Amino acid sequence: MGDLADSIITELRQKFDRHPVWVWYDAQEKYKGVLNEVEADLDDVTLARYDGSYFELKRRLRDEDPNYEQNWLFYIPESRNDAEWFRDVHALGRQYRVGQDIDDTPVTQFLVEHDEEIPDAYEDWGQNREYQRLAFFCVLFETVGPAIDEWVRDYLSDPEDYREDIEDNAMADAWDAQLREEYGINAGLDPKELATQLLFGEVTSRAPTAQYDNLAADDAQAAAEFCDDWQQYTPADFTRYSREIEADYDLTEAVIESDQTRWNATAFKGIDTGLIRLVMDRLAEGTYADLPEIAAELNRTVTKRRDSFWSNEDLVDWSVPALAVETLRQIGTVDVDDAKAMGSRELAGQYTTDDGWWQVDAAYRRYINATQQATFPYPKEATVKRQVTNHYMAFLQGVNRPLAEILSDDPTLGTPQTSFYEEFAEVENGTAIIICDGLRYELAEAIRENLGRRTDFEQDLSAVSAALPSITEVGMAAHLLGELGLSLDDDELVVTSGGEQMAGKADRVERLSAAGFEVVDMDEVGDISLEELTESDPVPRVVYSGTIDKLGESLDDDAAFSQVASHVDDVERTVQRLKQAGYTRFVITSDHGFLYTDRLNDDHKVEAPDLAPVVKRRFAAADRETPLVDTDEFVEIDHEALSKLGIDGPEIKLLFPRSVACFKSRGGNMRYFHGGISLQELLVPCLTVTTGEIEESASISYDVSIPDPITNSILTVEIEAKSGQVAFDPAPTLEVRATINDEPVADPVTMEISPGDNSTRVRLKQGAISGEDTVQFEVVDTDTRETITRQTVSLDLLFGDDDMGFDV
Question: Which Pfam families does the record associate with it (predicted)?
Answer without folding.
Answer: PglZ
